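Predict structure. Input: DUF47 family protein, 212 residues.
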Amino acid sequence: MGIGNIFQVFQPKDKIFFVLFEKVTENLVAMSNDFNQGLQDFDLNDDSMLKKMSDYEHKNDEITHEIFVELGKNFITPFDREDIHELASGLDDIADYIYSSAKYIYLYKSPQQKAYTEFSLLIQKACVEIQHAFQNMKGFKNMKQVKEACIKINSIENIADDLLSNSMAELFETHDAINIIKVSSVLNYLEIVTDKAEDVANAIENILIKYA
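Output follows.
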């Protein structure tokens, strides 16, 4: 069945999935914006940023739960049920790891690193591209824009890989074992966020291939 035929049977109740995915991506963009800004203005004695990240993470959990509930209620879905589940889980992972990154910065009392803000900017850009991808998936009318967003996310993940490698090399030059343990742990959490964003992009690309 071609894309046009698929979306002829795309009924109003089916559109709930795109509505919920829009809510998730809006939450992720807001979360990543505040995370990036919070790290730029970082104060270890002010945990307001961490509280914000916790609130965003809980909100994401709630929307993800709504998606799973709707998945159990609705027979008609915009694409395969397992794809919806994979996307919802992947988006939830992004929120989880952003929150974990913030949490361990505070728990470890990790000194601020330039790499933290470099990662947070990459994360923010990846979340924006994920939002763009979902905005253009409606009806599969703007597949080119969806593909371009996915390509940008993959590129961001590659940049994050290099940033992790370079940051770890610089970190080991400090010869400060305790600091190395703390900072490397945070850096790994930050890099995983971009991995999870790439997972979402790959899932979206697989959907495009399946219904092309």
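The chain is about 80% helix and 0% strand.
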